[in-house]
Each structure stands twice: as structure tokens, then as C-alpha cells.
Inverse folding.
């Protein structure tokens, strides 16, 4: 069990992390070096992934025909991990995803 997650848990975690990184690239902004920042922390009972960009978070529109294919990333991430934390701060946005380890 890699990182304390079974195969299904690993798949869910990777899909959620991919969504967070994709959102940071598509909707965020890079830092002065042209980067977004990624980190992963494996403590005794949780695996946590964070992605930080330097953009300004805008809450997506809900239930509009024009947005039918967009604006569902946070809900998707929340369905795949145990906790999603969104930190909106001056100068950037951080999304933290956590999943319990076996």
C-alpha cells in the first residue's frame, strides 16, 4: 500500500491532485519565477497534497448553461478525498487535499 493508501485510494488521491494542479495552471497565476508550488506531506494518519498559485480565486458560477462543463472541480475533489481546504489569501490561493491513511 503506497503511502498508506490502497489502489482505489491512490487513484482517487491522484485524480483529485490532478484536478487541483490543472485548476491552478488554467485559472491561477504563476509566481515571479513562472511556477506554481506543490507539496505533499505524509504524517502518521493522513496524506496531504497542496498546490499554491498566485492568482485571485473567483467562485465559479453555478447552474448556468454556459458553465455546464466548468466549475465542478472543487466538488470533484471533495468527492475523492476526505478533506478539501481552500485558502484564499492576498497574493494567492492554496488548495489542500487530505486523505486518511490505513
Amino acid at each position: 500500500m503506497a503511502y498508506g493508501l490502497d489502489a482505489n485510494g491512490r487513484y482517487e488521491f491522484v485524480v483529485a491532485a490532478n484536478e487541483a494542479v490543472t485548476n491552478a495552471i488554467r485559472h491561477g497565476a504563476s509566481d515571479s519565477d513562472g511556477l506554481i508550488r506543490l507539496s505533499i506531506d505524509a504524517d502518521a494518519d493522513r496524506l496531504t497534497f497542496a498546490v499554491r498559485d498566485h492568482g485571485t480565486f473567483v467562485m465559479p458560477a453555478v447552474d448556468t448553461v454556459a458553465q455546464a462543463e466548468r466549475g465542478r472541480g472543487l466538488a470533484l475533489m471533495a468527492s475523492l478525498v476526505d478533506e478539501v481546504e481552500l485558502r484564499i489569501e492576498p497574493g494567492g490561493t492554496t488548495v489542500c487535499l487530505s486523505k486518511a491513511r490505513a
Summary: The first strand starts at residue 37 and ends at 42. The chain is about 30% helix and 30% strand.
